[in-house]
Amino acid sequence: MQEKSYAVFIDGQEGTTGLRLAERLSRRQEIKLLAIDPALRKNMQEKVRLAKMADVVFLCLPDGAAKEMAAVLQQEAPDVRLIDASTAHRVDPSFTYGLPELEPNRRMEIQRAKRVSVPGCHATGFLLLVRPLRAAGLLPENAPLCIHSVTGYSGGGKSMIAAYGDENRHEFLNSPRQYALGQTHKHLPEMQVHGKMAFPPLFSPIVADFYSGMAVTLPLHGSMLTTKTKKDEILTLFQKTYANCPLVHVCDSPADGFLPANALSGADGALLSVSGNDERILLTAVYDNLGKGASGAAIQCMNIMLGLPEDKGLLTGPLEF
Q: Catalytic residue among 60, 121, 251, 301, which?
């Protein structure tokens, strides 16, 4: 029996997310990528024409352009499956938030959806760590959370990639650099809304001199939890929560005591670990900012929307450090 084929249009294929999407999807025989003439890549009429031919459209655009294209497609091609990788619609109730592991019924919601927003890279790790605690009633909604996230420079797009690749680059790029110092990072709204928190966390993102990968860490003092909970009990909770999730795996902390942020560079899965002790607990999510943090997550959503195995065409990566 011949496998059903699907037409896919990537609007914004020239950026890091779009390029990884095209690379992953080009390997799949059942996917036909609809190419746009580079000279017409900003031509709305041509983009709509291709979108109408597609089963799935990915938006890999700046927020303003993504909002414009989504609005046009709502009128011109309302039946096309739309997956937006920008920040534009992540807290928009007309879009389904595309983190399948968020809650038990989320996969079904994604499968039924016409419009899905792909989570932000930093928000993905935060939510994978927070939501099990919220669902179990262990973490109050007004908990004063503080997280830090170390990420590779590819998350900054073409301009940052060029800056780090410049042989005459500034010496400051040789060291990790904290950014978004004003606590206005664009992922904060989705962290609060989809984390079911009363207010956003104190967030310290850090970009460092490696291409891709990230480690999002949530430190918790035992007194922040609603009931006395041991570190191993949280580990067990995570193991049960993600037992049937093919792209999220719970593992032991690295035996050597070092946790590499680039351990899953090039892969599409995520590793979660619980370390520290019963009084001061460290929860960490490690994954590729271009994989589970962007393109891999977008393809996972596409697979679910089309009724395919959610990890089809994706690289899970190592199951432990």
A: 121
